[in-house]
Write a sequence for this structure.
């Protein structure tokens, strides 16, 4: 009988993990405000001018937020039907990461800046606004990206091979004088150039280097078409299959073509 | 009876709000020229070399344009069938914003630069050239963008989470020495890098920072595929819906060319 | 009778304007080599180190090329069936522009650099390699771009409105201290940023300026999806219509759908 | 009989060229580790701080790797059924290029940096992980890119004509003062700008130069749509062809889902 959650734990669960009740909704909105406030405080603390004047205030606020979030974390563990499952879930880990940096900052100065990982907690907050529509759109996107993982891996592998080779060639051509001080630095330059970011902290100075760099730029400008094409095609396929939301009455298959009259899996008539 | 607009107000309305009559067309073209001239004057006034020599001329011209546009604004209010509706419409607000900076510049030096918002008035001028075709194209575009709002919001939310986390990590890794003076500045750097803008005013200098930056760049280079895919798929759907939706009366085929008079499948006459 | 071209003029025409005969082909290949050589010479002349040592050589070569191209231009006028039509055609104007800078350089030093416009003459040379396949591909591309002109104009108009407004706001926010010396300069910065070029010669330094700049960058990163979507959709439509190369036997219409059995224009049976 | 490979050569071939047997798999994984290690060593050797302290270690390791790869190369020649075919195959040449730089470095200091071309050997290693799925995806990508070669050549030709003309115009407008020291340098700037890389090592300073640069940037921002459109359309066609090409035996419908067992239109069994 002790394994059966008490009424109190059940009620806590409704407030802390759900947002259908007024209590749950109030809890979630309070949490949203606290997360945004705490991330803002951490960011502002890092600004030298502000830290000089307001450091004690910032530190007190940080400890306040951390204690609140620690209490919340303990309540979540207590009220979860299976505490271990929660602790090792994505959100359980995020919740833990959101509090430990403050405790670590006692020993290591600077650890508190990792508190910005708290923004990840906002992912859960999507629920408050009943953002189911957004969640569906997110699914279309992540399905399309998942479906193109293999193609994108092939593309990324090619890009990495390219930047290693181009970087090494530029190191030999340009040398340390124009900033290409080593092969790793030159590979960094190749990434900066091929992705069309182009900081300009390292730039070729010799004619041969500029000719090779021009080829790299034109290549980078052109091959961006490849991931774009991949995602567009996948998104278009995913979209098509998610428009027909009908489920086969016989075999319960989803993902029929928009014009389908029969189930592609068992041949039963669809409505 | 007083609510019935007088013949004079009606005539004014035709000239000021429409462009079918010669008078209306002349009014609109004059307005187009005045707007472009006034925005050019405001821009030139901001150039130090020109301001030193021609400030009195610029100021006189600005007041001249503002008085003209104020008169026009009052005429619009007078001749609109429902003045309040006009005042609070998009174009009513733009028209007001186009004149107040000059009056504000008496009290606040620099306010006159907001006169460049006058360019927004050009949106109305589209009408002059009977740009209905352009307006339709604009509608296709804005429909496609509207339809993808949810997906783009999800994407933008992900990008914002990413830049906050990446910015904070870079602040801890690089520190103030290479320009990462605070978390907000580092987040700004992350935006500059992820969007492939790459000013180079802040650039990583440590090996670890350059490795993380390389990942950010490749990520930014790759994920641009996502909004592109979203808009392309939506645009393709919107286009399809806005082309020929006719069904052949004989064989029930769809997907005819926009200019088709006969069914491509059975040769029957389309309506 | 004098309007009938002489046999000699006809033969010249075959050599100079066509490339089917061995003579015509030889002429075209010689021309290709001469154009590339002359553009290379003009480019090298602009390099200070080379100009100091080889200026007389460069000038002699330039005059040599110009005299050859002048003779060729006169032969083209002489052998063209309708000389005036040739003179005012696209290639006629390009041919003239390819020779006048050298003559102008007697009066204006530097005019000779416009000789690089000679590269435009290469467009004609496409013919040598019987690049009809390339020309068809070029047509698919230019048709798709033509078909999307209206949409791209709407998009470009929006971009121009945006950069004017953003530029002016940044001028007021940042001011001359961080390089935003005037509204035109700030508009230039807005173009550099929105298009994700990001030179870094002008970069925001104030927190408010960096926040606005971040929005501009994310906007620029996102809206590149719009022209990409437009061109992709048009290209896909153009491709589809250019695969079926059949011409209606009755009304001579082209551009049928790949699956068409009947002409969309007159309803006749296609083969 | 002597042309028949001996049992020993056959066994060697299975180990060195295949990865189905445990021996072959072990060989391939060892090779993968050695290649990554050797490329890392070459990269680290180029870092000044590390070279100063560890040069003898790096050189010994490099010679060690090179001797191992030389032995492997000789074994491959010996065990290949047709040695000459292997030597002149893509991988044969890559294998040779992976060892000669070390020998060359005896005569030319710096030649050893070309050892990074060893990363190309990783292309062969794809086989280890039975990455047939990846290889198929790679084929879809390379087919799509091959099919769009003509269109991309036309596009690249246009881009090259553009940068030559724009570069020359900027040279005349800006001159050496703002970094446009010669036509080739200005063409390099045009590539940097048109591809939206934007280093900022050379940037226009005159109003006219900035206006022209703004046009170039907007053009570069817009025309990236063209290769993207080309690849997307081709990829979409290639994908379609490589999915389910089956036709329903009953109603002759095409376009079934890849996993379909029944026709979506009439419910008949597909083969």
């Amino acid at each position: 009988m002790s394994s059966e959650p008490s009424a109190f734990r059940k009620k806590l669960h409704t407030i802390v993990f759900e947002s259908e009740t007024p209590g749950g909704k109030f809890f979630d909105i309070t949490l949203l405000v606290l997360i945004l406030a705490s991330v803002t405080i951490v960011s502002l603390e890092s600004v030298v001018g502000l830290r000089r004047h307001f450091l004690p205030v910032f530190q007190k606020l940080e400890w306040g937020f951390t204690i609140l979030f620690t209490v919340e974390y303990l309540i979540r563990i207590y009220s979860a039907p299976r505490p271990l499952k929660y602790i090792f879930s994505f959100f359980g880990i995020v919740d833990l990461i959101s509090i430990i940096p403050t405790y670590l900052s006692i020993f290591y100065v600077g650890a508190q800046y990792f508190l910005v990982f708290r923004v990840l907690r906002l992912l859960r907050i999507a629920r408050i606004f009943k953002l189911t529509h957004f969640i569906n759109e997110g699914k279309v996107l992540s399905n399309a990206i998942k479906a193109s993982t293999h193609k994108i891996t092939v593309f990324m592998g090619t890009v990495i091979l390219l930047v290693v080779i181009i970087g090494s060639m530029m190191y030999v051509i340009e040398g340390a004088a124009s900033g290409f001080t080593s092969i790793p630095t030159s590979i960094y330059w190749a990434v900066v150039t091929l992705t069309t970011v182009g900081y300009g902290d390292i730039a070729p100075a010799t004619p041969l280097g500029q000719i090779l760099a021009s080829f790299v730029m034109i290549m980078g400008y052109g091959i961006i078409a490849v991931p774009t094409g991949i995602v567009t095609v996948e998104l278009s396929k995913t979209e098509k299959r998610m428009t027909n939301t009908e489920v086969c009455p016989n075999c319960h298959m989803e993902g029929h073509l928009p014009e389908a009259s029969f189930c592609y899996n068992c041949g039963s008539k669809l409505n």
